[in-house]
Design a protein that fits this description.
Blueprint (H helix, E strand, L loop, with lengths): L2 H26 L13 E5 L5 H18 L3 E5 L6 H8 L7 E6 H10 L11 E17 L7 H10 L5 E4 L5 H13 L4 E4 L3 H9 L5 E5 H9 L3 E6 L14 H4 L7 E9 L4 H16 L1 H9 L3 E2 L4 H21 L6
Parallel strand pairs: 1-2, 1-3, 5-6, 5-7
Antiparallel strand pairs: 3-9, 4-7, 4-8, 4-9, 4-10
Helix pairs in contact: 2-10, 4-12
Length: 334
Amino acid sequence: MTRCALKYRVSLALAQSLLAALAFTLLATMPVAAQVFPNKPLRVVVPQPPGGGFDFVGRLLADRLSKPLAQPVVVENRPGSGTLIGTDAVAKAAPDGYTLLVGSVSNLAINPGLYRNLPYDSLRDFEPVGLAVAYSYTLMARKDLPFNSLKDLVAHAKTNSGKLTYASAGNGSGQHVLAAALWHLAGVELVHVPYRGAQAAYQDLLGGRVDVFFDLSPTARVQVDAGNVKALAVSGSARLAAHPGVPTITETGVAALELESWFGLFMPAKTPADVAAQLRTELAKVIAAPDVIDIFRKAGGRPLALNLAETRALVKRDVDRWTKLTRDLDIRPE
């Protein structure tokens, strides 16, 4: 072999080695979002302890998403400061699609009005994956209260200011904010009696020591069906199938007020478009599954089937409306 040929072969081998090393380096440093998604487990952050609406929805959706995504979807309960700790953790998580949040009216629409220095922005820091279900609230009265309608109760309160009491699961809770907004719009004054959780509020409502209490309709249904309390109104846009004789707040003519506590999954803003699209597609299939719809309905919920534009509009509407109402009423957390 001539010296020139040998030199050519050595140069060719060296070039091939350099190209192989460069290709390996490029693959190793390729952004995760550009690789196949998902290639590791996902986590769904529930910003409250196990049990309750957040946890129920989060676990059902996580379980059903694991199969189409071909990866485990693990629920992580991150309670603390109401719903602030878990929600803020997702707002600051890497926007790669692997960390999702169970979002609701409570942590995304009501908190901005409650906390003057909220560490996250509900509209700027999150993008919806999809909303799955909405739950109404039911206004219950102790069974011996001499009023059988919200209209009669409000009429009495107008001439007996500060004589009636209403319970809540704590200052700044959904039960508190909804009730305070109702009394404000109706132009009456009731005395707020905050409790540490709904269970304690129920004890005093059933014992006749407090007059009325708003709670999520699936939970309230148990006491209404048992005849332990009287249902005066529901807060959603339509009557409930379980209690067709109970009017909506708007139907009573007392106030034009609606509130349903929707629940769904949210991801950090700036999640890559292809990852976001994949998550939305798979979640939409889960939400539309007949067995999932049946589970939500049996639990007293209203399954949702919204496109992305409708979802964004609903979230923005409630953030804007409840932020203003909460601040106008000067409601503060405990």
